[in-house]
Here is the input.
Amino acid sequence: EVQLLESGGGLAQPGGSMRLSCVASGFTFRSYAMSWVRQAPGKGLEWVSLISGTGGDTYYADFVQGRFTISRDNSKNTLSLQMDSLRAEDTAVYYCTRGGLSWGFDNWGQGTLVTVSS
Amino acid sequence: QTVVTQEPSFSVSPGGTVTLTCGLSSGSVSTNYYPSWYQQTPGQAPRTLIHSTNTRSSGVPDRFSGSILGNKAALTITGAQADDESDYYCVLYMNSGISVFGGGTKLTVL
Here is the structure.
């Protein structure tokens, strides 16, 4: 069974940083692209970032480009999202997902809440 | 900037059929965008229903089907049930690793 377990959410100040992690199990982690998708309170889903299976290719939504960095450690089956220069509008539940290429997002974690507020 | 459009809300009677659509602010949706569909109930993570236009994910009942209708992607639910009442999101894959979500459709079953 595929499992994705996020951690690292919490309260951050505007301009601050936070690092999210997602530990994957139940599949060959290195064989899959992975993505982060977020959902602001009461709003819709937004794709944030994608990383290829090898980690050699990364992609970002315009609204996080230059502030967020996606990475992975295939030896630890772990996906990460380093979030810098946080803004109030980054407040959201962040979901770790498997996929994000042409086959869509086929498995989702339960999400971790990030709140950016002073 | 690419905008993916969905009906903000829709209602269907129990046992009825409803088709939700997913379009582009400019241009037509084709299979080349590999449309996918997700169901989300309040407080829960999304559930994947359909990928690559019309391929159902594991465990998804065949009441849910995907297609291209005219210039839009479509999700059709036949024999609607009370627990189909959810938010439904489509995603279009823009290639180069970028995906765009639609704004979601809130489906009411009444």
User: Anything to note?
Assistant: The mean pLDDT of chain A is 97.
